[in-house]
Amino acid sequence: MTHLLHRTIKGSLPFAVGGKGIRIFDSDGRAYIDASGGAAVSCLGHGHPDVMAALRDQLDRIAYAHTSFFTTEIAERLADRLVEDAPAGISHVYLVSGGSEAVEAALKMARQYFVEKGEPQRRHVVARRQSYHGNTLGALAAGGNEWRRRQFQPLLIETHHIDPCFAYRYQLPGESDAEYAARAAQALEDKILELGAGEVIAFVAETVVGATAGAVPPVADYLRRIRAICDRYGVLLILDEVMCGMGRTGTLHACEQEGVVPDLLTIAKGLGGGYQPIGAVLLGRHIFDAFANGSGFFSTATPIWAIRWPRQLGLPSRR
Asked: Listing from the earlier edge strand, what are the strands of the sheet with 160-162?
């Protein structure tokens, strides 16, 4: 009997006891080719000696330090490298524990950005049907998989969904790729105008759709059109590359091939290669500047002084 709540309760799973390269070994001596990399996670292979050595070296130094009080050389080096390799305009990195948390943080950053700018009326998030952005409540709300969302609907924040850019299902007979891309992108503009041009926070999309619709890339200039629409109405573009990023499409970030720079970019999975739970939000300079010139911090990671001295935040003191 197991005390683990497995994804599927009935039945039993083989015990994975080892891994090397592309293979996982179970307790009965069988070898499995990990062809999907464990849902696009183990992109560096199992048991890579260089990765194992780096992990041991860091553990010998320090495993954890509270980020309200300390930074670390390894975190600073990672941020430097990610910004160095990121699309132009990305200036900072927020490190988290995985993909769902990265999407949650990006949604919060998008909302706080407009609060800092004096536009608190912006509250709507638009995403696409047949998308997947994670299992936490904010990410699940943004996701467009109805089966996953249905039983949790009363707990989800209000979000709005348009059709995905999915030529196999939605492109009309005789319609060119360019014509279809224009029509698919127009759905976003129509939704923004329906909700109110000055009330939309962000549009969230996977650059290449992963878990829900299969590997579905954008058609023609769809993403460039989306970027232009977001710019036209002051809406932030959040690209979710938790699955398709970190080299899985031939470039480090999938959006590089589309010539599009998002305001917020989420990564995970391949960032840690299965060796370490880690994710990140890459944010544009304008997002960072709004925080730096406003409250001075990102609200989801409120520093300790804000808890101890609430008056500095304009909060009432305890009597």
From this structure: 90-96, 279-284, 264-267, 236-240, 200-206, 124-128, 160-162
Q: Which helix (H) or strand (E) holds 75?
A: helix 73-85
CA distances from residue 245 to 250, 267, 305, 314 in whole angstroms, order as listed: 9, 6, 36, 40
Residue pair 124/114 in contact by the 8 Å Cβ criterion:
no
Q: Give yes or no for residue 310 having a pLDDT over 70.
A: no
Domain map (residue ranges) of the chain: 16-51, 70-308
Q: Compute the residue count for the chain.
A: 319
For the 70-308 domain, the top CATH level (class) is alpha beta
Q: Is the pTM of this model over 0.70?
A: yes
Closest by alpha carbon to 235, among 266, 258, 201, 264?
201
Evaluated on CA atoms 181, 186, 192, 195, the torsion sign reads: negative
* Burial classification of residue 12, based on how many CB atoms lie within 10 Å of its CB (0-12 exposed, 13-18 middle, 19 or more buried): exposed
CA pair distance 195, 188, nearest whole angstrom = 11
Residue 237 tokens read as 């573009």
pLDDT recorded at residue 303: 59
